[in-house]
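Homework-ish question, so no full write-ups if that breaks the rules, but can someone show me the predicted structure for this set?
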Amino acid sequence: MTELTRAGTDLRVRPVEAADLDQIIAIDADITGKKKTDYWYELFHRYGASRSRQRLFLVAEAGGEIQGFIIGEVRDWEFGSPPCGWVFGINVRPAARLAGIGTRLLEAICAGFRHAGVDKVRTLIARDNSLVLSFFRSQGMMAATFIPLEKDLR
Amino acid sequence: MKLQISTSLALYSVLEFAASPGHQVSAAGIAAKYKVSTHHLAKVLRELVRADIIESTRGVGGGYRFRANAKRLTLMDVIELFERIGGRTGGSRDPGASTDVGRALGVVLAEIDEIATATFRSITIGTMLKLIDRQRRGTDEKTQGPPKRARKG
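A: Not a homework solution, just the prediction itself:
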């Protein structure tokens, strides 16, 4: 199975289906150490089930198994920015990494964003998440013209 | 943001070697391209050899060869061999650093250092080579114009 994935021959990127959710929840729990079933069902209803051009929830499938997923949407005029695509979730099974699956997922969601009429994609990543930060950098993403700010409320 | 001369020189060199994987690149060629003394460059290259990033090759056509993994080696890995990001701000030699004003300024400077460190840590040598290639293609398009389209019918 891994061989198929590494070769990239059997990989298919497609919109998520309800039947994929158990595997997506398991991949996320494996990586984050937290099983968030309600969260993923909610995301599926908002991004997967509606099949809108603005909201995209895609999975990468190989050998009948989900290897990874990506979620994003087009947001209009948020933070004063003209409409652009936002990627706010991407994950690939650890055993299936370094095989170009993340690249295929990002390419697919960018194609979806272009189809929705936008020509810029953005994301936001924790400063210490070198793995994902490096991935997006390797895909040609550069620092945006925004600076995220925060404040403790307690 | 300004890097020390040795650090910049190390990054230039690593990128030159990584751009020609498996090939020997002469130190003299790099010194000429970046207009630095071969003596200064030799010191920097010795450090890169010690860190196992490049290896020196002897004999006719001797030079240096890249031996690290370009997809794994980050800019920070190279920078850390020569300087410490954030090491220049505040510190015990700055008497103002312990004042209220100095501490507040330190918070802002530390924030900048953290962003710089995260940026250097997230960019691999492989990613830099792609960036260089994109910039080169962009410059080519500016000087030569976009590729000409075939005329229809």
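Now go work out the reasoning yourself. Hint: Residues 5-139 of chain B form a domain with the Arc Repressor Mutant, subunit A fold (CATH 1.10.10.10).
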